[in-house]
Amino acid sequence: MGDVQYHLNFLEHNGSIKFRRIGNYKTFYSMDVTDIRHELILAVLHQETQGEIILYLIEHPSATQSDIAMHIGITSPTVNAHMSRLIEMDLVKSFKDGRFVKYLLVEDIEDIIHDLEFCYPSIWARLSNRLANLFLDLSTGYSEKEEKAEI
């Protein structure tokens, strides 16, 4: 760890990289990342649980706290804590639907998709495979329903 810190500090002092402290974590960025929103997105995607929540919200807009908790395998209070941080960063918003609180990504997901595709290609590949399977399942389900309706 000492070697890594030394080299990161060296790169930072030479103007090759920059960092932002978010909570207890220090996240490093290329100097090409100039937008604070992109910095926040990259920092969140870098963290396992919050990154998984963002991916889940891309796939399932308007998900509830219990939906997210079940999918990720963490408790609802833990989801609530993560969602509070994501809301504070203005990446996610919540709204009341009856007795449920639902969550949506703020604005357009294009920024997140762009950051995933270019900065986290392994996560992007996993997400695109999940989305492809989702679309295949939907198309198969629709064609089976149509066939049953015709019979």
Task: Walk me through the structure.
With 151 residues, this protein is α+β, with helices and mostly antiparallel strands. 64% of the residues lie in helices and 17% in strands. It has helices spanning 2-13, 36-46, 48-59, 65-72, 76-88, 110-119, 121-150; strands spanning 17-22, 25-30, 63-64, 92-97, 100-105. A hairpin with a 2-residue loop joins β1 (17-22) and β2 (25-30). The longest helix has 30 residues, at 121-150. Residues 143-151 have low confidence and may be disordered.
Count all strands and give the number.
5
The major pleated sheet works out as: 3 strands, antiparallel
CATH top level label of the largest domain: Mainly Alpha
Helix content: 55-70%
User: N-to-C SSE series?
Assistant: HEEHHEHHEEHH
Number of domains: 2
Q: How far is the N terminus from the C terminus?
A: 66 Å
Low-confidence stretches: 143-151
User: Mean pLDDT, rounded to whole units?
Assistant: 81
CATH topology (level 3) name of the largest domain: Arc Repressor Mutant, subunit A
Helix vs. strand class: alpha+beta
CATH superfamily of the largest domain: Winged helix-like DNA-binding domain superfamily/Winged helix DNA-binding domain
Please report which band the strand proportion falls in: under 5%, 5-15%, 15-25%, 25-35%, 35-45% or over 45%: 15-25%
The CATH architecture of the largest domain would be: Orthogonal Bundle
Number of helices: 7
Give the neighbour order of strands across the main sheet.
3-5-4
